UniProtKB/TrEMBL annotation, chains A, B:
It comes from the Bacteria. It comes from Streptacidiphilus jiangxiensis. Keywords: Oxidoreductase. GO terms for molecular function: oxidoreductase activity. This is Pyrroline-5-carboxylate reductase catalytic N-terminal domain-containing protein. Transmembrane segments: none annotated.
Length: 214, 214
């Protein structure tokens, strides 16, 4: 499948590498066409790189792995035409560390990043997922033993099913994928990141995850 | 131990009943001295009831089981003199359902209810805990099988140890009690309630809890 991964940070790098390893045709997108990190990643993975718009243009699925505070700008650069009808997998978090620790979770008027993206690009099909864990766990859930969960939020059931399929290819079991409902539920998972940051401090490792136990 | 439970709602009722059952001398506090729910509870449990101030006056531990949006008013009514030096167990959530579902989690400027209480009553020793689960699970963790967690946040280590002791008397194991650090970490657990509300909708039961798995 042709997949664009927007973002050249650790999260984008990890997801793009995993997707390329699974045989997908991945293009890493960044602000500029000559981003060194994207160039290096593409060379190492026999994959492509380009601007946000170039990456999104041919993609069937677009992964937003940019920081939540710049995601709207990144998708705007990708362009509404290049996002129309496509599944946008939003793994971002609106964390603002500018005032130190603990970071503020920025959700203007309580609205999640995912909803902001969906409102700006109503013809895209935004699905929030994977933002509640470390990037290594995102693409290899077996790093955390036993039962733990990944959440799905979105307004488009077909898009959520496509994302669930991607998650299964990463190693997530059906019993681990928890559909929270429509995209307003992205508010809940974006707020969960505050606890993640605290636990990262308390546990001293990123190899943990949340489980819902009943 | 002499314990005041402020709040006559479901949460206050459940906690007060459990504490009375464990042999503590419990006083249920409410806005007025003749609150019917408090009166009925006291009669049924051979316990006491009174105003917030009356309840707090003799207590060694004060449990804030009022709604997060009115907690500051409730503790103000209890009175700084009656809170001085005491452990205040804050189990509240600042949920605002006035605009429907999903509720807004009210934390002005990102500051938790627990921190607001601590700032208003600097001589009290506020500990945030138990706010991330249904009240039935709070006092009987065995309702949820297997590994799951209760969080602790607070600036006073001795107060946190006293609250951990209370939690153990409710049935919580040492491996379930997760100390997140100082009281700013209450922000993280107060924000978790948004996900709890979503999961309550998705799972159709309150008998679930969060686990941190590593």
């Amino acid at each position: 499948m042709k997949i664009a991964v927007l973002g050249t940070g650790e999260v984008g790098h990890t997801i793009a590498t995993r997707l390329a390893g699974l045989g997908h045709e991945v293009t890493m997108g960044s602000r500029s066409a000559d981003n060194p990190a994207a160039k290096e990643w593409a060379a190492a993975n026999a994959a492509a790189h380009g601007t946000f718009a170039e990456a999104a243009a041919d993609a069937e699925i677009v992964v937003n792995a940019t920081g939540g505070l710049v995601s709207l700008a990144a998708l705007t650069a990708a362009g509404a035409d290049n996002l129309r009808g496509k599944v946008v997998v939003d793994v971002s978090n609106g964390l603002d560390f500018s005032e130190g620790f603990p970071p503020k979770i920025v959700t203007p008027d309580g609205v999640s990043v995912a909803e902001q993206l969906q409102r700006a690009f109503p013809e895209a099909r935004v699905v929030k997922t994977l933002n509640t864990m470390n990037n290594a766990v995102m693409v290899d859930p077996s790093r955390v033993p036993g039962h733990h969960n990944v959440f799905l939020s979105g307004d488009d059931e077909t898009a959520k099913a496509a994302v669930a399929e991607l998650l299964r290819s990463f190693g997530w079991g059906d019993d681990q994928i928890l559909d929270l409902g429509d995209l307003t539920s992205a508010r809940a998972v974006e707020q969960l990141v505050g606890l993640w940051v605290r636990l990262y401090g308390a546990l001293g490792t990123g190899d943990f995850n949340f489980a819902v136990v009943k």
